[in-house]
Specification:
The chain is of the alpha/beta class and 298 residues long. The protein has two domains: 2-81, Arc Repressor Mutant, subunit A (Orthogonal Bundle); 108-282, Glucose-6-phosphate isomerase like protein, domain 1 (Rossmann fold, 3-Layer(aba) Sandwich), CATH 3.40.50.10490. The chain is built from 13 helices and five strands. It has helices at residues 5-16, 22-33, 35-40, 43-50, 54-63, 69-83, 91-97, 100-123, 126-138, 150-161, 178-181, 201-212, 250-284, and strands spanning 141-145, 168-171, 189-195, 216-221, 234-237. It has a five-stranded parallel sheet, sandwiched between helices. The radius of gyration is 23 Å and the shape is globular. The two termini are 17 Å apart.
Length: 298
């Protein structure tokens, strides 16, 4: 199930609550204020707590384009399972460790992934985040660059980030060089560069070129010093050690996800509505596959 569905439903309820009849408004407010209880409790208990009939919950479910109350409640129930992962400890990894050669390898890889994410997010202090967000919001133009394996992370950051920063540019374009896109860069612009060891020569070249132009630099990497003569204004350091030959990117992806959350939050209601409109356009144009009965989310 789409893990963002619960949050999207809550946002839609907030948008629609003023237009709902009194009983449905009471139900919507309860769902917004108590999403965990709503996901856990049966329909009659929820209705009794709110002071309405079970039919009111069914009506709200239909208003939200669900076929039944259970279907409406399911995203909230699913979120409880996901949110509770931290309470499970690591006993499951210990059990996996004893499940033969494959289990042992999977256990080592799982521990490594968890450690990488934890360390990367721990290094992402509020002060560093605020510095990066302020830098991006104040810039006149914003560029993001990466090559080879790092390009996947940069592409995702650009794909989502352009909804909060519409003029965000992913470079290089059209199989050219990132430098081609930075020729007119100034001190009012910022370059976000992503690279993990072994560092891409093309990315290093772009970093040096941007610095020579006086551009601000945000570096997301496993080191603050990726090469001589490169001084980044802001560095988000990520862990990247792995159980295989290549660097592990789960830490970089976790940091990028958090950064995107901050950028969207900084945009407030305007950005949230823009993302909703974008999502509507994609759904209406058939960009996403859906079964015949898919809940319409705004």
């Amino acid at each position: 199930m789409d893990q963002s569905l619960k949050h999207r439903l809550i946002e839609r309820l907030k948008d629609d609550i003023d237009s709902l009849p009194p009983r449905l408004e009471a139900v919507a407010k309860y769902v917004i204020d108590h999403p965990a209880d709503f996901g856990l409790n049966p329909i009659r208990e929820t209705a009794s707590t709110i002071g309405v009939s079970p039919n009111s919950l069914v009506r709200l479910a239909q208003k939200m384009d669900f076929d039944s109350f259970d279907a409406f409640r399911e995203p909230f129930r699913e979120a409880l399972v996901t949110d509770g992962e931290r309470d499970l400890g690591e006993d499951w990894i210990n059990r996996m460790q004893d499940a033969g050669e494959t289990g042992g390898l999977q256990a080592r890889a799982a521990r490594n992934e968890i450690n990488i994410v934890s360390r990367s997010l721990r290094l992402m202090t509020p002060e560093k985040v605020q510095g990066v967000v302020d830098c991006l919001l104040k810039a006149e133009r914003r560029f993001v660059t990466a090559t080879r394996a790092s390009y996947a992370v940069a592409y995702y950051f650009h794909y989502v980030g352009r909804m909060a920063l519409p003029d965000l540019n992913l470079i290089p374009r059209h199989m050219g060089s990132a430098v081609d896109e930075l020729v007119e860069g100034t001190a009012n612009d910022v370059l976000i560069a992503m690279t993990l060891a072994p560092y891409s020569a093309e990315t290093i070249k772009a970093l040096r070129f941007a610095r020579a132009r006086g551009m601000k630099i945000v570096l997301i990497s496993d080191s603050e010093l990726v090469a001589p003569n490169i001084e980044a204004d802001h560095v988000l350091t990520v862990a990247a050690n792995s159980t295989h030959y290549f660097g592990c990117y789960v830490g970089a992806m976790a940091v990028v996800e958090c950064l995107l959350s901050h950028l969207v939050a900084a945009g407030g209601d305007q950005i949230r509505k823009k993302i909703g409109n974008y999502n509507d356009v994609r759904e209406e144009s058939g960009a996403y596959w859906s079964p015949s009965k898919l809940p319409r989310i705004r």
